[in-house]
Structure formats: C-alpha cells, structure tokens
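Worked example 2:
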Amino acid sequence: MPIGLRLAPQHRIFAAFALHAIGMGSIFPRMPDIKAAMGVGESTLGLTLIGLPVGTLTALTFAAPILERVGFRISLLTILPLITLAYAIAIHAMNPLGFFLLLIPVGLLIGCVEIIINVEADRIEALINKRIMNRAHAFWSFGFFGAGLFGASLAHLGISPQLQLALMILFSLTSVTLCLGQFQPSPTRVKEIDTDKPVFARPTWPILILVGVTVSAMLMEGAGIDWSAIYMRNVFSAGPFVAGSAVAIVALSQAIARYFADGFVEKHAPSGVARFTLWILAVGIICVFFSPSPAVSLVGFALIGIGTSAIFPLAVSAAAQRTDRPSAINVASLVQIAFTIFLLGPPLLGAVAEHWGVQWAYGIAMPLVILSIATAGALGEKSRDESIADTN
C-alpha cells in the first residue's frame, strides 16, 4: 500500500517540482567554495560544469520512450533521491576532471526528471482544464530558493559542502516518500494515444522557434544560478551569506512571478506576457552589468528572476500542445535544447568572466533578449478567453 500524504494531482506535481529543484540546486550556493578548493579560475570551473549538460542532453534526447516504458511513478520515486546521492559523490572529486566526469550521471538523472514532471504538468492541465504550468515552475523556483538559502546559511556557519550534500540525501528520501509516495501518473492526452513514439527526440522547426523564445531566459537563469555568488564575491568582496543569497534572490523573485503568471496568461496572450517579462529581464541585466553597489546588484538579480519566470513554462506548454507528435517527444525535444542552454551556457560564460570580468557573463546576453522578443509570437497571440470565444 502506497505511503505518504494524500494530495490532489496538481499539488503533488507542485511538490515534485519543488523537490527536484531542492536536490538539483543544493550545489550551486557552494560554487565559491568548490572553486577555492580546486584552486581554479572561472573558465576551468565552467568547463567542469559542462558535465551536467552532457548528461542532461543525453537523457533529454533518448530517455522519453524508456521512461514511458518503465513508468513515470517508479522512475520519479527512484531518480529524485539518486540526484542528491550523485551530487554527494561528485563533491568528493575535488579536481576538475573528476568533478566533470561525476557530474555526467547527475545530468542524466536531472534530464529524466525534467521530462517526467513537465509532461505530467501538461497532462494535469488537460485533466483539470486549468493552466498550472507556470505555477508548477514557481514551485521549482521556490525549491531552488530554499536550496540557495540553506546552502548560504551553511556556508556562513562554516559547514563543508560535503556534509551539506550528505544531509540532502536523507532529506530527499524522507520528503519524496512523504510527498510523492502516493504519486500516480495522470492519463495521457487523447492526442497522445496510439501514436508512434520515436526513440530520438529530434527538434522540428516549430520547436526550434520556441528555443529562440527561451534562449535568453534560460541562459540568464543559468547565469543567475551559476555565477551570481561568484559575481558578488569577485565584484564586491561579499561574505559567504550575501554571496549565496544572490542565488536565492534569483530563485525567489522568479518563484513569486511564476506563481501569479498563469492568471495573467489566462487573460492576456502568452506572447504578450512573454514580451513584458523579457523587457524586465533586459532591465535586470543592465542593473547587474553597470551596478555600483551590492544593493543594486541584488535588485538586478531579482529583476532577472522575474524576467526569466514565465518564458520556459509558456514554451513547454506550447510544445506539449502541438499535435504533430506525442507531447513527451515534443517536450523532450524542446527541453533538451533549452535545458542545455541553461546548463551549458553559464559554464561557457566562465571564459568570458575570466577574461573580460564576471559582469560580461550577463551583459553578453542582451542581443539574445532581442531575439526572444522577436520570436515570442510563437507562444500564441490569443488569450484563453479569446480562444474559447473563437470556438463558440
């Protein structure tokens, strides 16, 4: 008999997003400590972090049919605790090559969970006839905020990253059992039934346009997570708590914006909501790039969180609602590229940070913001109310 809390389907998927982010995000507030322990510069640290997108891209490219065959329930309940275990192992390899290699399995696990929870959120939207995708991603951001605040606090207390990540294993096992023990996958959408499911999630042209919409948000969300703590340490000589708090601020502002975004998307066109948040992202980048003080930088990071909030969830919904292929394949083909930008872009920005200054890890994204604004129409130019009126 399954154990755990009895929750509505949407509340359970919210918990899954949050627990995924807590496990995935537990390492990022400790990046200054990891960098110092390895005795490397920003570019070398960035290269070691490429292990994450290598694994993630592999999973997002090939894992969707395997996960469907194994079943979302057993996959999710198994993989979430394994992410924290894999991190706890990787943190002991305090040399660049070993760290890179041990991050690859972490990326594989992360990619599998991304497919499961995003497809499940879309299916629940169909089941309850209500948008929840942005709110689901809000709980991902709340989880990342918790991980950032927890990591910053332990860094301030002098607790080692190794001990912190070991504690996360116990937390993950307990919380997954409690919150997801009774998880059962939602029914597939009607359009998914009896369709061929290719092994390789090849992106189509419509999916590539959606990638163009997400590229700036994913890159800046990743930079806000990977480099914000190091930015505060390098530029303003901030202490461990303030530096780690920058990661938490990005996640918290993003979470709050995502939590309320679905209501705006119901009333306004997804493309209009996307363009508005992208302009906020541009202002946040300018604040961080030209910042004269830690306070201005933290405001900039908060704006980056708001600016990146709705873009990826809206693109996932657009991909999942396409009828040319099963939603799991379309979501995987979008996420495999967008999430690779999220994970691979910021490590490559390490070379930019080391040679030009860490501010340029943010300033270099401005042309991509313009590209995203230009392609935002692919998300849909009609609100839900307008779409319903057209069908009547």
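Residues 387-392 have pLDDT under 50 and may be disordered. Residues 96-128 form the longest helix (33 residues).
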